[in-house]
Amino acid sequence: MNNSRSCTSSHFRRLPKSLSIRRKVLGAIWYLASIQRQHHCWNIQCKNERNRTPACTSQFLNCSAKDNPARHAWLTTTNLLTNCDAQNDENFQFGMFAEAFTNHVAEASFIDKYFYCLWWGLRNLSSYGQNLMTSTYEGEILFSIGICIMGLVLFAHLIGNMQTYMQSASARLEEWRIRRRDTEEWMRHRQLPPELQERVRRFVQYKWLATRGVDEESILKSLPMDIRRQIQRHLCLALVRRVPFFAQMDDQLLDAICERLVSSLNTKDTFIVREGDPVNEMLFIIRGQLESSTTNGGRSGFSTQLHSGLALSEVEAFALRAVDLKFVAKQFKRLHSKKLQHAFRYYSHQWRTWGACYIQSAWRRYTRRKLQMELARQESLFYSQVMEGEVESYYRDEGGDERPLVDHSNNGSHLGATMLASAANTRKGVGHQKLPRPDDSTLEMPKFFKPEEPDFYAEHEDS
What is the model's pTM? Predict the structure, then answer.
């Protein structure tokens, strides 16, 4: 079916070219035959005037003798031009070639001759020579028969191509109708909800409009490896290079990736991927719009998961399956270079989120340590000032009354109590801040684990 359709399309493309060549050839033959027909008339009349004075010779008919005095004398007495006039067919019948002289084609410029002969060939080829008024000259009749046969062959060729094309198109349409009818019967048998049935119908309709029933994968598989690689490179290379991670790979590795891309079609309001599903393939969008959304800021860990992807319109894309990517990685060890590893971490959503959370946690630990150091410094300064008797500080007793921390009348006896009260106030302030210890478990990120290094080899699968 695919071969018949491709052959028909190639015939349709060759038909205008074949028609153009044939009309040019017919127009040129007609013009040259017209000149030859007139020269034949001149030879006949010249033979009839050889016994006259001045006599006609064959040299007088050549352009090289136009300055010959004898030729000028002969032109004044000859009847050759009158008897060989295309508008007067009593002495000589020009037939289908008279038009070249009655319309003054022979006297026109080269451009005018070219287009007129082109038009003459197209007109008579499309009408099978029905407008030709021929004489009894054998060559003229054979030429007219050739024009008629050529026109019939072209018309039959066109009709045959049209019939083949219509049969191929109708066969594909009938095949699609049968598949659609089977789908409808299956959905009714399974008692699918009306909304789900409508989505299935919309997908089947979109797939038919996008592919016209052509199986692209089977066509590519039937081609040689070199041609298939060139086609895949033409279709997919620009899309693959738009991904920063793939843009740093060499051409050989990109060709291997392009060879394993498959076509993917999705209709409107279709979830291409749901949040939490494992990553099975990567999509390179050709046309269409997608909406990416997540819940709780995407804080669901750093396993191989994606945000939800909803198709806002019909989406056509190429898909790279995870299995194919691992196969390419096993064949090409260059995937494990430091440059590609860095690119993977830099453009990975999981690695970026983990890095941001790690920096935030480190910053919190730093600020808390800085606050504790500042409290310790303030407490040390306070102790030194108390010991020197420069500060009159107070603390609250159990009854809520403020009392001086230091009694200057009896410094020595109350020094221990003063230090104890100062330490109590400091601890109370630190407790009010609820500052965790540097090794406290609250500083850790229990939900955000460091992503694993990309392992394309998948050795555990081979073992």
Answer: 0.41
The pairs formed by 346-350 with CB atoms below 8 angstroms and a separation of 24 or more are 346/244, 347/244, 347/245, 348/451, 349/298, 350/302, 350/451
- pLDDT over 80 at 40, yes or no: yes
What Cα–Cα distance (Å) separates residue 194 from each residue in 17, 176, 200, 312? 52, 21, 10, 21
Minimal CA–CA distance to 260: which of 344, 210, 326?
A: 326
**CB under 8 Å to 462, separation ≥6 — which residues?**
none
Phi, psi of 262 (to 5 degrees): -120, 155
Q: Which amino acid is at 164?
A: T
CB-based contacts of 436, cutoff 8 Å, min separation 6? 368, 442, 443
- Crossing angle for the helix pair 2-48 and 110-126, nearest 10 degrees? 120
Strands 308-311 and 290-293, bridge-based pairing: antiparallel
Average pLDDT in the 13-38 region? 79
- What percent of the chain lies above the pLDDT cut of 90? 0
User: Which residues have CB under 8 Å from 355's CB, separation 6+?
Assistant: none
User: At 79, is the pLDDT very low, low, confident or very high (cuts 50, 70, 90)?
Assistant: confident
Q: What is the mean pLDDT of residues 246-250?
A: 74
In the predicted structure, residue 220 carries a pLDDT above the cut 60: yes
Residue 437, CA atoms < 13 Å, CB-side half-sphere: 3
Task: Give the separation between CA 108 and CA 354, rounded to whole angstroms.
Answer: 84
CATH class of the 216-338 domain in this structure: mainly beta
Let me know if 80 is exposed, middle or buried by CB neighbors in 10 A (0-12, 13-18, 19+).
buried
Domain with CATH 2.60.120.10 in the chain: 216-338
HSE, side-chain direction, 13 A CA sphere, residue 33: 21
Tens of pLDDT, residues 44-61: 888 887 777 777 777 777
